[in-house]
């Protein structure tokens, strides 16, 4: 018996009857020989961590565009915080921790440079539209490994696609990530906004903080415990009504006072225009795209606009800015 088979037996014996067992995965699009030491979800997690799109997230905006300071969240640090929260909940509920972690680590791989500002403008100018959760699936199915994709299991891809607010994950592990994403970003965005001196902790509405807690630590502790207590031994991932109402209220307050305010949006118009310029340029000069993207059009029949969108969406903030300068900013003449 291999180590993997022993791990699969341990899952059968220990995990909740509502957990997604590795041995019962719906599998991959392309058949592969099983690993002798890792379950299918462990392999998926490892593939995501080692892929290029995962590394690029360290230079992609979470909320604040080009912040001056080392401690503001990026898309990568957000992803790691989601993963940690989701793993804590999954472990407490005896769900499949490896599946939960793989979904969490991959849920934002398709995010654009400049955060949701980049997503909004690509959705507007790309004929087929753009949504980061669908792009995340496209990254793992199509764009990584020079067009071969990562060949992840169905359950991981389902969790990635359905992590959005309106999503309906097919596994409880996916549902844990969907809720953990909100718990993470509401709280770490408050932390970053306070760091940016947009408001103080005492400025948060008392009707919400009296329920959730009066610090990031208290709120995380309260929310995570509430999810665990209300989901234990149940076929669903839920929160108590008072906690859910307070979290939604605080989220709405954050949209009104942070996400849509002038400070994080100070450079938004420039960022959006930069993306429009890059999109128009590469739609006009597709021969200047990197080879892997040209192959997608010439040999695999992908639409020009879709491929240009893929290229831009994969850029980090700094790469997009440097490329814009190279293409559109005149350089000083030298002898």
From TrEMBL:
InterPro entries the UniProt entry points to: dGTPase, Diverse_Catalytic_Enzymes, dNTPase_2, HD/PDEase_dom, HD_domain, PHydrolase_assoc_dom
Domain HD: 75-186
Swiss-Prot/TrEMBL keywords: Hydrolase
Superkingdom as given in the UniProt entry: Bacteria
Organism: Candidatus Caccovicinus merdipullorum
The name this protein goes by in its record: Deoxyguanosinetriphosphate triphosphohydrolase-like protein
SMART domains linked: HDc (SM00471)
Pfam families: HD (PF01966), HD_assoc (PF13286)
Keyword Cytoplasm: no
Family affiliation: Belongs to the dGTPase family. Type 2 subfamily.
This protein's record includes keyword Chaperone: no
GO molecular function per UniProt: triphosphoric monoester hydrolase activity
């Amino acid at each position: 018996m291999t180590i993997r088979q022993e791990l699969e037996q341990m899952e059968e014996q220990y995990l909740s009857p509502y957990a997604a067992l590795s041995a019962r995965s719906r599998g991959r699009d392309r058949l592969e020989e099983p690993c002798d030491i890792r379950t299918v979800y462990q392999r998926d997690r490892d593939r995501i961590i080692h892929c290029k799109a995962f590394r690029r997230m360290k230079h992609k905006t979470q909320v604040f565009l080009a912040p001056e300071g080392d401690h503001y969240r990026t898309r990568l640090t957000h992803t790691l915080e989601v993963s940690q929260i989701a793993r804590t909940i999954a472990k407490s509920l005896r769900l499949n921790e490896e599946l939960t972690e793989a979904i969490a680590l991959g849920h934002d791989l398709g995010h654009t440079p400049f955060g949701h500002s980049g997503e909004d403008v690509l959705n507007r100018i790309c004929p087929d539209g753009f949504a980061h959760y669908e792009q995340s699936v496209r990254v793992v199915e199509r764009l990584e490994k020079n067009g071969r994709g990562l060949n992840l299991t169905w359950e991981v891809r389902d969790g990635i696609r359905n992590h959005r607010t309106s999503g309906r994950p097919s596994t409880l592990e996916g549902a844990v990530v969907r809720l953990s994403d909100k718990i993470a970003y509401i709280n770490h965005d408050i932390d970053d906004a306070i760091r940016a001196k947009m408001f103080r902790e005492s400025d948060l509405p008392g009707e919400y903080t009296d329920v959730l807690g009066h610090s990031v630590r208290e709120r995380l502790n309260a929310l995570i415990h509430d999810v665990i207590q209300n989901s234990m031994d149940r076929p669903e991932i839920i929160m108590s009504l008072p906690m859910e109402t307070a979290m939604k209220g605080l989220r709405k307050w954050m949209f009104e006072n942070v996400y849509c305010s002038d400070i994080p949006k100070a450079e938004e118009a420039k960022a959006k225009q930069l993306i429009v310029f890059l999109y128009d340029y590469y739609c006009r000069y597709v021969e200047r795209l990197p080879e892997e993207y040209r192959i997608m059009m010439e040999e695999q029949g992908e639409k020009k606009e879709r491929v240009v969108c893929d290229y831009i969406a994969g850029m980090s903030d700094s790469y997009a800015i440097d490329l814009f300068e190279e293409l559109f900013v005149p350089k000083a003449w030298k002898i």
